[in-house]
Specification:
By secondary structure, the protein is mostly helical. The chain is about 70% helix and about 0% strand. The longest helix has about 35 residues. The radius of gyration is 16 Å and the shape is globular. It starts with a helix and ends in a 9-residue tail after the last helix.
């Protein structure tokens, strides 16, 4: 679900629409991070910003300082959704399922909402 958000974030970074402008080389280097950072999206970003410094003692201005905490939050966010999707797809394989569509919309919306967050540092 983070692929469309990655495209949005890359377009913003390459076009100069964010405080930080990256070149294509930097965007390609950041791709592995973007996959899981944007999977966590806005929900994980908000929780992370509120708790990172008090839990790890590191400044929370950059996710890289506290990647392990951000990754744990992302797992806590994504695993229940993934389990629900797997169960629904197993039960109703090959049929349209409203729940699957709603979960996909929530995950996509959350990822796109997090595309402006400067995970690389501020």
């Amino acid at each position: 679900m983070s692929a469309p958000a990655i495209l949005v974030q890359d377009a913003l970074l390459l076009s100069g629409a964010t405080p930080t402008t990256f070149g294509m080389d930097d965007v390609l280097i950041g791709l592995p991070f973007q996959v899981w950072v944007l999977l966590g999206g806005s929900v994980v970003q908000q929780v992370f910003e509120e708790t990172a410094k008090s839990i790890t003692g590191h400044r929370q201005a950059t996710m890289i300082d506290n990647w392990h905490l951000y990754f744990a939050y992302t797992l806590a966010w994504a695993l229940p959704w993934s389990a629900l999707l797997a169960w629904r797809l197993r039960v109703a394989a090959g049929r349209r399922d409203v729940v699957v569509g709603l979960v996909a919309a929530v995950l996509l919306g959350n990822a796109v909402a997090g595309a402006r967050w400067p995970w690389w540092g501020s």
